[in-house]
Amino acid sequence: MQYTMEELMAARIAREVVNGETVAVGTFSPIPACAGLLAKYSHAPDSELFIMGSRDWWPFSEGSQEFFNLAQRGRFDYFFLSGAQIDRMGNINLHAIGDYTRPKVRLPGGAGSSMLYYMVKKVILFKTDHTEKSFVEKVDFITSAGSSPPSVLRPGGLHFVITPLALMVRNQQSGFLELASVHPGSSSDDVQKNTGFELPLSSHYVGETLPPTDEELTLLRGPVREELAKIYPAFAKKAFG
Amino acid sequence: MGLPFMPVRGVIGTDYTRVRPDFITIPNPYGDDEILVVPAVNPDVSLIHAFKADRFGNCLVNSSIDDALLARASGKVIVSAEEIVETDDLKASHRGNFISRVHVDAVVHLPGGAFPTACGSLYRTGVSMLTEYLAAAKDDTTFAGYLADFCRRVKDGGEF
Fold this sequence. Notes:
The complex is a heterodimer of chains A (241) and B (160).
Chain A: H1 5-14, E1 22-25, H2 30-41, E2 48-51, H3 63-72, E3 78-81, E4 85-87, E5 92-93, E6 96-97, E7 105-106, H4 113-119, E8 122-126, E9 135-136, E10 157-162, E11 166-170, E12 177-182, H5 188-193, H6 214-231, H7 233-238
Parallel strand pairs in A: 1-2, 3-8, 4-9, 8-10
Antiparallel strand pairs in A: 4-5, 6-7, 10-11, 11-12
Chain B: E1 5-8, H1 16-19, E2 24-27, E3 34-39, E4 45-53, E5 59-61, H2 67-73, E6 76-84, H3 87-92, E7 97-99, E8 106-109, H4 127-136, H5 140-153
Parallel strand pairs in B: 4-6, 6-8
Antiparallel strand pairs in B: 1-3, 2-3, 4-5, 5-7
């Protein structure tokens, strides 16, 4: 079956979730919300899923502080962050392009990301574009850090980075991002050309990302889309094949 | 909470500590790690939009955001509400977080008061209105025009 890039990214993320894990989705994150729902409706029915902005997937009564405090206790297995820039070290920038004091573009800020990236076991970075401008050698402002001093409690960190072109993982020795798979339709050369830093093949490189299966697409276009329309109506209209 | 600061996990190693000298790294007095402390946020005034309120200031607010926390941190709290009801009605309602009148200084009856943002399941985000606002807010001239036009169009909240 033909599929959209959103469907491929959601399906790839969903496959990571093990039944019983806790998946938390923040604001402006329709693709991760799709992934969480797809996992829940397929192989991980006993997983706990929280989606910010949803009534049905929000079992909290004390506002977002209750959600963030749960994260701060280390209770989330997955959370999803993005950035206007992501760098080679897995740092993200949600603050400013250019000098922070005289920015070319002022961005919305980090919300809880500077805590979540440290305290959520597996953080997936996602981005809906993949260009030299968005994947840079060094971010202009570190809103949240891919690595931190050993004196700081950090049970969590980067799991992988997913974009419309590829999936990248961190080399544990160097701390640098490396290529783990390339989505169908792109090559590792294409990915390198659109990345602002050297992107070697990871020792975990598997070649092509497995595209969404017919079963995954049926779920995505059925129950997942239906749920998503309640939270992200504009996305639900355009993102599915 | 009446406390001057709060410890927060994470953050150390980011650029927050570069631009916020008031975010301070201290040794955890009860552990082996280092931890960041941040100053309390104490707003002078909070404006909070409620689903329902009574005339004493008791109200029910959206439970997915931190209005109840905000009310407890602020010097003065002004509540606007979709509906003004009797106290018994408020207590019987299951929707939303309860904020006690203890924290509230004034109540305003303001149906549609959250628009163009959404209000629970009562109404959704006014996308076209926000899109118009975003386009106008790109520079000072267009925004001044937008404000003038907006004030001319909308004499009071009822015209939403």
